[in-house]
Design brief:
The chain is an alpha/beta fold and 532 residues long. 44% of the residues lie in helices and 14% in strands.
Length: 532
């Protein structure tokens, strides 16, 4: 502890800006940084007859004439978060690289993280089943036996996609899904959970399929904190899609092992403040089912943000936007450069493709693209008109010239071809419903805009839809002037390691500050580096 004498002397704590080195004491800001960054050993702030310094050596702190003013214990990154998260998923860190749709969270990205003992989700949302199959095959071959997750996104307008994703996860032996954008529990997410349940030799329930639910509302979290709804279980048994024994076991376990508080993130988001949402979910969990772990997502782009989430009680942290600019992501080089230039205010909300009719928005990058304004224009037209034939001639001509760049009849023909292969029911439902047909045509643009970004289609740069949150800008500020500033130097494993090491570093700095220690700016911030 810092002594009362130092505090009453008008100091907030020991002043380490001018260090007088004893044999084992750090002298300069760089020396002090190295002491603080040695996370496997404790750090002692001490005073001797020559002044104030810091050391990792317990022997130095116990020397005659040395007064220990403050200390912080070892804190390697693997100690952050919940040990149960690491055990359950078989990973090294309480860190999750969340899914980014359309394969932005690519097989290459997931494989790279799985090999280093980090949980990552494959971005299956929005991909046709053949691409999901190919992605899962690539991951299981590239990281055999390593745990990973696959995104299972709620698709109320495309139920066949949910079923196909679950079928593929079961076929490939995927042991975890990241369930995102769910407004209610569906038969498919319940089926995945139940199919992984079995009775252990001691009579307990063995869970082979883990669900990580990403939510932004307490009422949705409550669904995943409870067992599967009885009507869904009963129907699945009647249809022969799960066994009676699996249904019985499902009645005794919560729907999710982990629930992620999704705050101000890229893509689907309610833009809730993370400290508020995380606190609400932690309290809800403690009241309803303490066995379920709560993670933090949205705004996690710097070590300080990760450390703050852990300090508030998060069992794990989730990153998204910051991984999108990494070399392994499925984004194009052009999109990655735009992401690498983003600031914290360069994002805004725009209508989503998968929930267009419901008026649901996603958060996207504004800088360098006209997508947000064009997407809002389409949704405004959808709200005001009953079908494509109801559009004013001038409006229709403008859309065909500036947004679609082709006749709307041709767009409809492409849409019919697409859904005939993917989900024929979509076309059947639109046959006698002009407004539904208009929605599908408008979704053609919204859906392809993210593909144009991922493929780097040069003449469509103004239409790039790049899902992004403020964490991207914060990460760019953190990495500025370091070896990781160029996006070409950023790897998903390097970002993960630096964020977690930095979070441990800042947690130790906070411990010392709470003990009254004043640290010079030159040594109190984590310095990201390229790691092997």
């Amino acid at each position: 502890m810092v002594t009362t004498e130092i505090t009453t002397a008008g100091l907030t704590g020991p002043d380490l800006t001018a260090l007088s080195r004893g044999e084992l004491l750090a002298r300069t800001a760089d020396d002090l940084y190295r002491v603080l960054a040695d996370l496997d050993r404790p750090v002692y702030v001490v005073r001797d007859e020559r002044g104030v310094g810091a050391t990792n050596e317990a022997a130095g702190a116990r020397r005659p004439g040395v007064q220990v003013l403050a200390s912080a214990g070892p804190l390697p990154p693997a100690r952050l978060g919940a040990p149960a998260f690491r055990r359950t998923h078989g990973v090294r860190l309480a860190y999750h690289a969340g899914a980014m749709a359309h394969g932005i969270a690519s097989a290459e990205m997931v494989t790279a993280l799985a090999r280093t003992g980090v949980l990552a989700s494959f971005g299956a949302a929005g991909l046709v089943s053949e691409k999901v199959d190919a992605g899962l095959t690539a991951i299981t071959r590239g990281a055999p036996g390593k745990p990973f997750a696959c995104n299972l996104i709620h698709s109320p307008s495309e139920l066949a996609m949910e079923r196909s994703t679950v079928d593929l996860c079961v076929r490939h032996g995927v042991t975890a899904v990241e369930a995102s954008a769910f407004l209610e529990l569906t038969p498919e997410v319940v089926r995945y959970r139940a199919l992984g349940l079995s009775r252990a030799a001691d009579g307990s329930t063995r869970i082979g399929h883990h669900v990580v639910a990403k939510v932004s509302r307490t009422e949705i979290a409550e669904l995943f904190l409870a067992p599967a709804p009885e009507p869904i279980l009963r129907r699945l048994v009647e249809e022969g899609r799960i066994t009676a024994e699996q249904a019985t076991l499902a009645r005794g376990v919560p729907m999710a092992d982990d629930i992620t508080a999704e705050a101000d993130s890229g893509g689907h988001t309610d833009r809730r403040p993370l400290p508020v949402l995380l606190g609400e979910l932690l309290r809800l969990r403690d009241r309803l089912n303490p066995r379920v772990r709560i993670g933090a997502a949205g705004g996690i782009g710097t070590p300080e943000a990760a450390a703050a989430a852990f300090a508030q009680g998060a069992d794990y942290v989730v990153t998204g936007s910051v991984n999108q600019a990494c070399v392994e992501s499925g984004q194009s080089a052009i999109a990655k450069e735009l992401l690498g230039q983003a600031g914290v205010t360069d994002c805004e909300m725009a209508p989503s493709s998968d929930m267009f009719e419901l008026g649901v928005d996603v958060q996207v990058l504004r800088r360098g693209t006209m997508f947000p304004s064009r997407a809002r224009r389409l949704h405004d037209l959808y709200r005001r008109h009953d079908g494509l034939d109801d559009l004013p001639a001038a409006e229709r001509e403008s859309l065909e010239r500036t947004v679609f760049r082709r006749p709307l009849e041709d767009v409809w023909a492409d849409t019919v071809d697409y859904f005939t292969r993917r989900d024929p029911d979509q076309i059947a439902r639109a046959a006698e419903n002009p407004k539904r047909r208009m929605a599908l045509v408008f979704r053609w643009y919204l859906g392809l805009s993210s593909n144009w970004a991922a493929a780097g289609v040069a003449d469509r740069a103004a239409d790039y839809q790049i899902w992004c949150g403020a964490a991207m800008g914060a990460a760019n500020t953190w990495l500025a002037g370091t070896p990781l500033e160029p996006v070409g130097a950023r790897t998903v494993s390097g970002i993960a390691e630096n964020l977690m090491r930095g979070a441990a570093f800042h947690s130790r700095v906070t411990t010392l500050r709470l003990a009254g220690v004043t640290l010079p700016a030159g040594c109190a911030a984590h310095r990201p580096e390229i790691l092997p």
